[in-house]
Amino acid sequence: MNALDIALNLAASGIPPLPLRAGKVPFGNCPACASNACGGRPNMKVPGPCACPAPCHGWAAATTDPYVLTSRPWERAWREAATVAYHPGGAGLTVVDLDDPDAIAWAHASLPATRIVPTTRGEHWIYRGVMPSANAVRPGIDIKSLMAYARWLGHGTAATAPLPAVVRTLSVKQSPPVPRAPQAPAAPLRGCEGECRHRTPTYLERGIAMAEQQITQARSAVHATVYRTFLAVLSTHGRCGCLTDAHVARLFTAAQSKGETTRHCMDAWTNARTTLGL
After folding, report:
1. Rounded to 5, what percent of the chain is helix, strand, coil?
2. Of 16, 52, 155, 241, whose Cβ has the fewest other Cβ atoms within 10 Å?
């Protein structure tokens, strides 16, 4: 089966493919899109408005549209393709890329069983769910999901399990340190008597869960939504000392799942604290 046939089969099953050149690299931007002249997807990392018909922009070129995949601008790419890749995040998947025996041994000891695809040097463990992609989260381990591509190496074996928290935590641990939650003030806050109501597990958990949902359901103005949500969380829970680093990490992870960088998250968190005088 040639590269185009593989791609069409993937597209029919809802997995967006793209061609790779020798060396497992995507096809470069066409002259019209070179140096981001088209105004979209700078450095092939952020989706933009570019509607170039060629397989430009790396992972962002992946599509399930058979008319695009078989169009004239894609013909040369498929003829020259060394292999086929796909955008895991576009298919609702996360790939844990294990590059050596030590990484595989760690996965067997630490991760829930899921679909496994053998690779040249190791294995791809595939989970159902998306998260920010990250390289070198542990020795020999990369995460490929949103805004990344992975080689298509077959369907693998076993059922695809839901994305576990331990995998999400891998990328959070490799991010720059998140700001520590503000500590409880020396004097009780006005209106708080005895133990603060925010320490009630149900109350706090509901607040964080609602904040995560508000961020992940944003369809536009993601920057503004993240800032407003951070502001709301801090205005409710920020003065009591009840927020922990784990709560902050959950909010950052939700924002990163929408394409926000760690720097953007930290800036939004800092600005919200400054606005509230924390």
Report:
1. 40, 15, 40
2. 155
